[in-house]
């Protein structure tokens, strides 16, 4: 069962803010929550997709796949 424990990384060590709930050798996965912005992030530009996205005329029509269920 996955358990999360908050802590921080400093000078090559991981410091946990509470005791681990296990006392034997256990596999762990460590996720670093960095405050750095990823390259894909940036300012949103309203209308940036104008002309690139279209909605078909029959968008609100029932799907053929669901005819048997109606």
UniProtKB/TrEMBL annotation:
<dbReference type="Pfam" id="PF10047">
    <property type="entry name" value="DUF2281"/>
</dbReference>
<dbReference type="InterPro" id="IPR018739">
    <property type="entry name" value="DUF2281"/>
</dbReference>
<protein>
    <submittedName>
        <fullName>DUF2281 domain-containing protein</fullName>
    </submittedName>
</protein>
<feature type="domain" description="DUF2281">
    <location>
        <begin position="36"/>
        <end position="68"/>
    </location>
</feature>
């Amino acid at each position: 069962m996955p358990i999360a424990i908050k802590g921080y990384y400093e000078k090559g060590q991981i410091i946990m803010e509470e005791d681990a709930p296990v006392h034997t050798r256990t596999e762990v996965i460590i996720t670093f929550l960095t405050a750095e912005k990823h390259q894909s992030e940036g300012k949103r530009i309203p209308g940036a997709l104008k002309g690139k996205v279209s909605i078909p005329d029959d968008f609100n029509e029932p799907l053929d796949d669901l005819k048997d269920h109606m």
